[in-house]
Design a protein that fits this description.
The protein is built from 25 helices and 28 strands.
């Protein structure tokens, strides 16, 4: 049964599928978009690096050209004619956007001399230094290329736009670059654009060249300069760029930046641009660059949107398909719910639902302080009916049993079918009649269920066994109650079937001890806790040892000495008997070899063999292997089997016993008379001995019936040419009576207890045997 919460979850599962798939598509599309945007950002950064490198390269070229012009003047000790200057610069400069000049230093006392010299050189009689006025020193333009500015302009006058740079060059003897200016040599209006940069470098002459040269006391000769238009500079830079780039440039030499170039709208500079810094002489420029459009417009959204749309379609398809599957699932679930509570075959509560009902009743009994009886009912020998008449008829018999159970139990009893041939019955004790306690009810159920059934023309008789456990005395929960009831059922089965047992503390203790015995027994097979002891078998006429029986003994570290009567049945029930039997055979053969090596003559050794061992297909091959491995004479071996194995599988067992007998191994029927004896076994099978169980011998002198049965078994054995062995002889009176009956061999504490393997050499019977020449 599905809870309402789970049912609601199933009803919304297709919406969950849509959301999950669509969110996956959204995440994928977002990842693609972010990846594309990151890629474009990297491209923009690379473009900014390229633009800044180009700009820096052009400025370095300008600086290099200016440096060459300065070197020309210095190397010619100041004697450079205008024609020579123009020719040199023209050959040097490839770009006509930059203009060069040289302003010579002229002290006031040499002003007239300088003007006369320049008039002669330029052929201009009107040449003079201007602006007019007397000053302590002058620095008029004496060399110009291209010839776009007038000769004689004094760059030390206040009308020169870059007077600050000239003063820096004059005083600090270093290169300078101007901030953006309007055209420096002409009169400009107040609103003229500041679009010109001037580079200035000082010129010095060697000391030996000072004569007849107008220099100051540190050999300062003048200033060589170059000025260029910012727009032309940027055109030169961007002309080599294939990408569309926008930029802005600021002079950041001072605290407040001066932006003098901007090729983009102001809105593009809000975010998403790259910044570089360049140094030009004594000034620092900041260069911002980016694509000429926003990153959003650069991103290719189609792939990401295509993926999102594809995931949307997939989500719709999966939602439709999931909803269809859920509809079918709910339909199948509704159909299954009709059968989940009721078993289809019997009409009783199903295995699942009856256990669910048990849990509910436990809660009820706990709240109401009531007792709950839990019965597990199992049919006896139902497997035989299935094998004889088929499973179809077996199912019909189960149906008839279910109907009878419903009729014989109280109306308020809860009945469930566990499967196979097992049923679970739950009864709250207040629902029982006062005159009918649980044991009477269990006996009544067994009696009525065991009456005959008429199924498809056949009259079938089948019994049942019942195990019970009561809440709250034994079992606080459903699992424990059923486990204890199963345990009680097992005891009912082992007690002869067609009966009932209730779980109690003693049963639980026995079960726990059995579990410990099984666990420790398995461990003992791997250690040295097990040992074989050997009890002599005595000829009752000559009182001579004629054989020994190998008896298994076990002393455990935890359990102490455990009787074979206790651990052998547990070994048979749990399957441990198989490795245990192999161990016994192996040890018996090993001891036989050891005794022979010590020179001890021993009679044949009898080994008890369980039904499970004889059923194994490899029993006979393993026996042959042991005989060959230890080189033991088969005549030294006797095998004792019980009658039960002959009843369970007489045909295959008979053939196996014949094969063993042909080897020379003696065979004996153990515990004869206590099971389902059949005289045909004695007649048809190659047995050599019949062993009378000690239950007859124990009371043979006090109970005439036991004496008569013992006498009859001995007579029967002799008539079939079999020797008879009586076990459990404990006193002389028993011995005398058995001798009178003609019993052949005896075994018991009257003669000897079971001896350890190491005691063979010192035991009186074995010593006496070795002093003679043989044994019967």
């Amino acid at each position: 049964m599905i809870s309402l919460k789970k049912q609601a979850m199933f009803n919304k599962a297709h919406y969950v599928v849509f959301c999950v798939v669509f969110l996956c598509g959204l995440a994928t599309s977002l990842a693609m978009y972010l990846d594309e945007r990151s890629h474009i950002g990297e491209q923009q950064k690379a473009l900014g690096d390229k633009f800044a490198n180009k700009l820096s390269g052009v400025l370095q070229q300008y600086t290099s050209e200016l440096n060459s012009v300065a070197a020309l003047i210095e190397s010619n000790t100041g004697d450079v004619s205008p024609r020579h200057f123009v020719g040199f610069v023209k050959s040097l400069v490839s770009n006509q956007d930059i203009q060069f000049f040289f302003a010579q230093y002229v002290p006031a006392k040499m002003k007239s001399t300088f003007e006369s010299k320049l008039r002669a050189r330029l052929g201009d009689t009107s040449f003079s230094i201007y602006p007019q006025g007397d000053r302590q020193e002058y620095m008029p333009l004496s060399l110009i290329y291209p010839n776009e500015i007038p000769y004689g302009f004094d760059i030390l006058s206040t009308q020169y736009q870059d007077l600050v740079s000239v003063q820096q060059v004059r005083n600090s003897l270093m290169w300078t670059a101007s901030k953006p200016l309007a055209t420096p040599f002409l009169q400009t209006t107040q609103n003229a654009p500041a679009n010109t940069i001037i580079l200035s470098a000082p010129i010095y002459l060697p000391l030996e060249s000072r004569s007849n040269k107008p220099t100051d006391n540190i050999v300062f000769y003048g200033v060589v300069g170059a000025y260029f238009n910012i727009e032309n500079l940027l055109k030169q830079v961007t002309s080599s760029l294939k990408e569309n780039v926008v930029f802005r440039i600021a002079d950041v030499s001072a605290d407040n930046p001066v932006w003098f170039a901007d090729s983009a709208k102001k809105t593009l500079w809000d975010k998403g641009y790259d910044t570089h810094y360049l140094s030009l002489a004594n000034r620092k420029w900041r260069v911002d660059s980016r694509f000429d459009s926003s990153l959003w417009t650069q991103v290719h959204l189609f792939p990401a949107l295509s993926v999102l749309f594809s995931f949307f379609l997939l989500a719709c398809f999966l939602t439709f398909y999931t909803n269809k599957l859920l509809l079918r699932y709910r339909s199948a679930l509704d159909a299954a719910s009709k059968y989940i509570e009721v078993d289809e075959l019997t009409g009783l509560l199903s295995r699942y639902y009856v256990q669910h009902k048990l849990s509910e009743l436990l809660v009820y009994c706990q709240e109401e302080n009531k007792k709950l009886a839990t019965f597990v009912l199992d049919l006896d020998h139902f497997k035989t009916i299935n094998e004889a008449f088929g499973h179809e008829l077996g199912d019909k018999l189960i149906v008839e049993v279910s109907r009878r159970l419903s009729n014989v139990l109280p109306k308020n009893a809860v009945i469930g079918y566990l499967g196979g041939d097992a049923f679970l019955i739950l009864i709250v004790q207040d629902d029982l009649k006062e005159c009918e306690p649980l044991d009477c009810l269990a006996q009544s159920i067994i009696q009525k269920i065991s009456e005959g059934y008429y199924v498809e023309g056949l009259t079938l008789n089948i019994g049942c066994s019942i195990g019970g456990a009561v809440y709250p005395e034994f079992g606080p929960d459903a699992t424990t109650l059923i486990k204890y009831a199963d345990m009680a059922l097992y005891h009912a089965k082992t007690s002869g079937r067609s009966t009932y047992r209730f779980y109690d503390v003693e049963m639980g203790g026995r079960f726990e001890r059995n579990v410990r015995i099984e666990r420790r027994l398995r461990k003992a097979l791997q250690t040295t806790g097990l040992a074989l002891h050997f009890q002599p078998k005595v000829d009752l006429i000559s009182e001579r040892c004629v054989g020994m029986e190998a008896l298994l003994r076990w002393e455990d570290e935890e359990l102490g000495v455990v009787s074979p009567a206790e651990f052998i049945p547990i070994a048979e029930q749990t399957g441990v008997i198989l490795p245990l039997g192999d161990w016994v055979f192996e040890q018996a053969f090993r001891h036989l070899v050891e005794w022979q090596e010590q020179g001890i003559t021993v009679p044949p050794v009898a080994i008890n063999c369980s039904a499970a061992q004889l059923k194994r297909a490899d029993f006979f091959p393993n026996l042959l292997s042991l005989l060959d491995k230890y080189k033991v004479d088969p005549c030294l071996l006797e095998i004792e089997v019980t009658e039960s194995i002959l009843i369970e599988d007489a045909e295959s067992c008979a053939e196996l016993l014949r094969q063993i007998s042909r080897l020379g191994v003696k065979l004996a029927i153990d515990d004869f008379g206590t099971g389902y004896s059949s005289l045909s076994y004695l007649k048809d099978l190659p047995f050599h001995y019949v062993k009378i169980d000690q239950v007859f011998i124990r009371d043979i002198t006090e109970d005439k019936k036991h004496a008569a049965l013992t006498h009859a078994i001995i007579s029967l054995g002799h008539n079939l040419n079999l020797k008879v062995i009586a076990e459990g002889i404990s006193n002389v009176d028993q011995l005398i009576m058995l001798q009178e009956f003609g019993c052949d061999i005896g075994q018991g504490y009257l003669f000897s207890k079971a001896l350890g393997a190491s005691s063979m050499g010192s035991d009186p019977m074995i010593v006496a045997l070795n002093e003679k020449e043989g044994f019967d």
